[in-house]
Design a protein that fits this description.
The structure holds two protein chains of two kinds. In chain A, strands 1, 3, 4, 7, 8 and 9 form a six-stranded mixed beta sheet that branches. Chain A has a three-stranded antiparallel beta sheet with strand order 2-6-5, with no helix packed on it. Chain A is built from no helices and nine strands. In chain A, about 0% of the residues lie in helices and about 45% in strands. Chain A is mainly beta. Chain A is globular. In chain B, the strands form two sheets. In chain B, strands 2, 4, 5, 6, 9, 10 and 11 form a seven-stranded mixed beta sheet that branches. In chain B, strands 1-3-8-7 form a four-stranded antiparallel beta sheet, with no helix packed on it. The relative contact order of chain B is 0.31. Classes of the chains: A mainly beta, B mainly beta. Chains A and B meet through strand 7 and strand 8 of A and strand 5 and strand 10 of B.
């Protein structure tokens, strides 16, 4: 049972916009920042969004993040086939004093 | 090339021990705090352990505290995870992860290895 809650799956067709949610509590998402990762099986997970809404260099501006209260969202605009994979959110939990993750959302591009 | 490469994962019997290694290259290893994160089959990511830059401060998840020991050798650009009293629940893909911080000192995991598989089974 993951501390942060994500939908297990999401899907869309090429060009569509997809939103993935990440719900936490006042001791994690509501207290500090959220980071997002993209993971394709067999490869190293990749940082997608850090500190709620910042993109590392090399990440297309099709990816954007936001946070409000105890929830965060990742939006992928102009969906592409290479966006398939698992998306994970994480945040620092000030009560548990550990990094906590969501269960991951498997994105399928139809 | 900037990368992290894990090694040491294998099949081990319940109650056994294993030592994982993480070799860093392409960046100043001693400048970064490092972590281990694992993913059990069909499950989400689980943070396990964290070591600060000079190895004097360590943090562990409750699930591994007392059984796992994290260490690093900055001269060898390496990090190690000694795992004892392994159980089937420790089966998973173990990732070595680098932490970086932004201007506000907020941390994020900006570099991951491909992982090394640990299977605990009789």
């Amino acid at each position: 049972q993951s501390v942060l809650t994500q939908p297990p799956s999401a899907s869309g067709t090429p060009g569509q916009r997809v939103t993935i949610s990440c719900s936490g509590s006042s001791s994690n998402v509501g207290h500090t920042h959220v980071n997002w990762y993209h993971h394709v099986s067999g490869t190293a997970p990749k940082l997608l969004i850090y500190t709620n809404n910042h993109r590392p260099s090399g990440v297309p501006d099709r990816f954007s993040g936001s946070k409000s209260g105890t929830s965060a969202s990742l939006v992928i605009s102009g969906l592409q086939s290479e966006d398939e994979g698992d998306y994970h959110c994480t945040s620092w939990d000030v009560s548990l004093n550990i990094w906590v993750f969501g269960g991951g959302t498997k994105l399928t591009v139809l | 090339e900037v990368q992290l490469v894990e090694s040491g994962g294998t099949l081990v019997h319940p109650g056994g021990s294993l030592r994982l290694s993480c070799a860093a290259s392409g960046f100043t290893f001693s400048n970064h705090e490092m972590h281990w994160v694992r993913q059990a089959p069909g499950k989400g990511l689980e943070w396990l352990s964290h070591i600060r830059d000079f190895g004097l401060t360590l943090f562990y998840a409750d699930s591994v505290r007392g059984r796992f020991t994290l260490s690093r050798d900055n001269a060898k650009n390496s990090m190690y995870l000694q795992m004892n009293s392994l159980g089937p629940e420790d089966t998973g893909l173990y990732y070595c992860v680098r932490e970086s911080r932004d201007a506000n000192n907020d941390g994020f995991f900006d570099l991951w290895g491909r992982g090394t598989m640990v299977t605990v089974s009789s």
